[in-house]
Amino acid sequence: MVLRLFHFNRARAVLFHDTVMASLSFPLSLYLRVGDSIQYYHQSLLLHGTIIFAVVCSLVFSFAGMYRGIWRYASLNDLQAITKGVTLSLLVFLPLMFLATRLEGLPRSTIFINWFVLMALLGGPRFIYRVFKDRRLENVLARVDYSRIPVLLVGAGDATDQFLRALARDTESPYRVLGMLSEKPSRLGREIHGVAVMGLVDDLKDVVVQLKKSGVPPQRLIITKDDLDGAVVDKLLDQAEALGLTLARLPRLSDLKSGVSEPLETKPVAIEDLLGRPQAVLNRRAMETLIKDKPVLITGAGGTIGSELTRQICALGPARITLLDNSEFQLYSIDLEIATDHPELPRSAVICDVRDHKRLDEIMATETSALVFHAAALKHVPMVEANPCEGILTNVIGSRNVADACVKAKAEMMVQVSTDKAVSPTSVMGASKRLAESYCQSLDLGPGSGRTSTLFVTVRFGNVLGSTGSVVPLFQKQLAEGGPLTVTHPDMERYFMTTREAVELVLQASALADQKVSLPRKGGIFVLDMGEPVRILDLARQIIRLAGLKPDQDVQIEFTGVRPGEKLREELFHGSEPLVATEFEGILLATQRTVDHVDHGVLLRAISKLEELARAGKTEKAMETLARLVPDYRTVSETETLPSPAQASQS
Predict the structure, then answer these.
(1) Is residue 279 part of a domain?
(2) Do 147 and 119 lie in a common domain?
(3) Which of 109, 110, 67, 119 is nearest to 88 (CA)?
(4) Residue 295 lies in a domain
(5) Domain stops at, among 102, 137, 172
(6) Torsion sign, CA atoms 113, 116, 122, 125
(7) Band of pLDDT at residue 361, cut at 50, 70 and 90
């Protein structure tokens, strides 16, 4: 985006003011040097010196970035620009004056005096105006600081100025302001405390593209104007969502304190800020084509993933929706929400445990759902590790029951929600989810295309930020109680995604599979490209910083040791799962492992035997059977234990 100085009337007025000040500074400096003797100096010296200096200053000031700042928000950043402009002007003026007059009769110290005089004439009016408008001196002395989470501000007024000053005072602030968007064309290209107005509000997409090209894409859009029109806010919300940004508002201007000793108000943790990357943006049109006018059933509809699936699917216009969960309260909560938000949508709320295959068959026969999303599962690793038979019954037998019910009811598609813990599993939870993946893949790869008309899709993702039982709500609770925050191991890493990303991945992968194009073979597993894994220790520190506190000073972090079933680093793909690109950026496909090509009948009998052992409570034999069915299942190495205090302090 090309910034043109002379597009702005106010900038011209300020340039005119500065040129006048420069023309006055030369004779004034000479007078300060020689006093009343100035009357004896030749008029041509004063005339030539004044004209040359005024022209030089006008040209230098125009290209020295002095007119990006706004007088209303003048600060030390503007003083730096003035200092640069004045110094450069004098360095250019001196040789030109030598060529014109040989500096005959001009005391050399006049140039030195002129520097101070012009600094006062240019800086004085700006800072007097700022003090007059603010009734405060400390705002003029503020400086710019930078923080980690890149943000873009909407608005270039008083609240923006106060926010930037608050960030400058708070050295632990987690935000870094990349630029601003303004409603006023007259402020394009101007600056407040060194932060540029990069475009108008309508230029959001172009500005984000420009910042991405510079290598620093914004993660959050912050509205700084209190009275921004509601229609504009709605539009910004849609644009931010399309660009993978979160949208937030600043507190009202009266809430932004001016005292240096007063810290920024503590804000709720913005979960999306913890990703360390913008959220993935997927193709919603394909999702709508998949869902619109079709009956849909969701298992685990009251859980974190299930409830968000329900919300997004209802917004895409299904013919009807069936909500299935074994928790009465969670089912009641999501049913009430859908009744309020989509009163016209036909729906059913069904209490059912996916372990009960007879009940599932009855429901599927009654509801005749075309699309089934299976999100019901036991997912808390230590809890499943302590109750392995329950994990097997829910995650393996429950998934088998749902898949078989889909086949009997001739559903068009079943989508199995899985986890990265199913790759080289070290826990019962991971192994049980891997076996559930294998069962659905065996149905999808069954001998003969006529085996079943149901398409089976498996979607695998990492940890979902903010989901029940995950680390972020635990950290938030511990932070609210004053700490400490507990981390199992300083080297523990996880892949993270937001609930919205997880659900959109499920829908997008389903749409891809439904199109039956660009997929080399059945039985593949869809995965979202989540970038680099996040170290849990860094996540804990980031949450503390987002609350306006200092890690290891205001809030301590303690190491508790690796829990049963946990491993230090998760994987998205197994080494024997070849990766295939899909037509949608950000979605990858892991194709079926050759070693997993097991006859469906053989696998079904083995799982039935596993069910008998689990229902009988024969934990040891059930675990041996699970290990045989999932050959790469290994327990956590005993070397992944609590670090020594020296190791922890070095992390």
Answers:
(1) no
(2) no
(3) 119
(4) yes
(5) 137
(6) negative
(7) very high
CATH number of domain containing 596: 3.40.50.720
* Domain boundary pick from 104, 137, 170: 137
Q: Is residue 108 part of a domain?
A: yes
The residue ranges of DSSP E strands in 482-573, in sequence order, are 485-487, 493-494, 496-497, 525-528, 534-535, 557-559
- The amino acid occupying position 337 is E
The owner of tokens 């729906």 is 347
Provide the β-strand partners of residue 124.
Answer: none
Tell whether the torsion through CA atoms of 484, 487, 491 and 494 is positive or negative. Answer: negative
Same domain? For 133 and 146 the reply is no
Provide the residue range defining the domain that includes 432.
287-629
Residues 72 and 164: beta-carbon distance below 8 Å: no
Q: Residue 61 and residue 122: Cα distance in Å, rounded?
A: 11
232 vs 101: CA distance, rounded Å: 60
3-state secondary structure 571-635: CCCCCCCCEEECCCCCEEEECCCHHHCCCHHHHHHHHHHHHHHHHCCCHHHHHHHHHHHCCCCCC
Are residues 332 and 358 located together in one domain of the fold? yes
Of the candidates 548, 558, 551, the residue with the CA atom closest to the CA atom of residue 490: 558
**pLDDT tens by residue, 475-517:** 888 888 888 999 988 888 887 777 887 888 888 888 877 665 4
Residue 380 DSSP one-character state: -
Q: Are residues 365 and 456 in the same domain?
A: yes
The b/e string for 312-331 (b: 16+ C-beta within 10 A; e otherwise) is bbbebebebbbbbbbbeebb
% the chain with pLDDT above 90: 23
pLDDT at 65 over 80: no
